[in-house]
Amino acid sequence: MNSSVEILDTTLRDGAQGKGITFSVQDKLAVVKALDELGVSFIEAGNPGSNPKDMEFFRLVADLKLEHARLCAFGSTRKKGTPVGEDPRIRSLLEANTEAVVIFGKSWDLHVTEILRVSLEENLAMIAETVAFLKAQGRLVIYDAEHFFDGRLANPAYALATVKAALDAGADRIVLCDTNGGTFPDVITEELKAVIALLPSPSSRLGIHAHNDADMASANTVAAVKAGCRHVQGTLLGFGERCGNTSLAAVIPSIELKLGLPCLGEGRLERICRLSRKVAEIANIAVSDTMPYIGTHAFSHKAGMHADGILKTSRSFEHIDPTQVGNDRQFLMSEVGGRSAIAERAKKIDPSITKEHPVTAALASKLKTLEAEGWQFEGADASFELLVRRELGRYQPLFRIEAYRVVSEHPTGETIACSHTWVKVWVDGQYEIAAAEGDGPVNALDGALRRALQRFYPELEQVRLSDYKVRVIDGTAATAALVRVLIESTDGRSRWSTVGVSADIIDASRIALVDSIEYKLIGDIERRFKAYL
Question: In degrees to the nearest 10, what's the CA dihedral of 485, 491, 495, 496?
Fold first, then answer.
């Protein structure tokens, strides 16, 4: 068997079929660049026969100079009763002008007779003639055996016959698809044996394409690789039809680090965290905090015993070094975190801080008091860092809100409700007054505050809120309850989170907003100072 695994990313085709996912042509070009930088072997970029947007994309993408990936156009076998050379969908695959094409065909006799409504023999001819035609046109042909595992369950001999038709016609890759996503790993392993027996030589590439309807996509993919597959298909972040596809950001590290089979090329795995987040930004989704390898929780430690163990021997509570996938270790600050975790986080501000340092004890005591009052810092790293600076005496406010007013309008009729905010700030002996309108009071307050400060700190123009969460702390107090507001901000390069607590949701938001802006400004000042030195 080959000692490396090919990766085909279908974010732009199968991924685009996921609920809520829409890519513009420019979005698709940006995703292609990110995937090429990651080092995947193939990018399944769309179905040129399905819509004009995909044809426009294939026209523009031809100007990109890709270093690693080969683009694939995607389509089905020829239509029933139509000569393959006259089928407009097949012609559109050629017009896409990609080096490789992915063709799917039916392996399940139910789909042949009930969906395509052709004879079993005609389906075999459709597969063979399509593959042979595209090979004759000089294309590398990847054949996706759709519903293969359901087909094997229903009619074992026929499912194998469809694969053999593609092989005999010259398909370069045979990919077995768990299209309904309901197969378990033991079945994947067993059924692969039958297909491997058909392969003409060990160098023939056998692939797997798994869906996640039974939460088995990653497990099925790893099982297939262990059984001999050397071509893996999926979407980088796992989104796709219904419950999604194999998440390549989770599976690639497992294949490379656990199975010892390279997928991306030397030094590229450490880019997977950053590039996954880039693709998420383009797709306008958030990477799940609990996503293996690349999620913000993947290497986060809260319990004091865990934090202490990590600091002594990292492998005691981590299965890999987070830097291998470009992620970071985090110690979550809470009343159960322990002094070891507090000291480790405080070292970012002052490297001399230890577990026994008086500041560590003071911070531990303060955390317990604040958490009893409803504060929570495990998801608000930036607010905790400002807390450390205050305790160390290394905090000097860069601005002060002197006054602010928020007014919300809720007119009747078709006029959209909106909010207006007026704010007065003090910066280094000077006052600035600004106002803004927003979709809600927090949006308006954020806009007015940044508008007032931009004369002094123009870099704030890059900052925006990327997430906003509100949690009622004590529901028994009804509308008088304390609320906790958690804000996530970004400047396009990094993200940070801050927290505010108050009985007034606007005031809690103000506290979190001020922390967010100060964290950004302090970080920029320190980076400029280090660069100057």
Answer: -40
**Domain hosting residue 409, numbered range:** 400-532
173-193 residue pLDDT tens: 999 999 999 999 999 999 999
Q: What is the maximum span of the chain, computed from C-alpha positions, in angstroms? A: 85
Q: Within this chain, do residues 305 and 269 fall inside the same structural domain, yes or no?
A: no
Instruction: Yes or no: say if 74 and 100 are a contact pair by the CB < 8 Å rule.
Output: no
The answer on 274 and 410 residing in a single domain is: no
What is the number of structural domains in the chain?
Answer: 3
Tell me: do 363 and 409 sit in the same domain.
Answer: no
Rounded CA gap, 504 and 497, in Å?
20
pTM for the whole structure: 0.73
Q: 230 and 133: one domain?
A: yes
**Dihedral sign from CA coordinates of 461, 348, 367, 378:** positive
CATH number at residue 456: 3.30.160.270
Q: Please choose, from the candidates 236, 503, 211, 518, the residue with its C-alpha nearest in 3D space to the C-alpha of residue 387.
A: 518
For the segment 386-441, what is each residue's pLDDT rounded down to a tens digit? 999 998 888 888 999 999 999 988 766 665 668 899 999 999 999 999 999 988 88
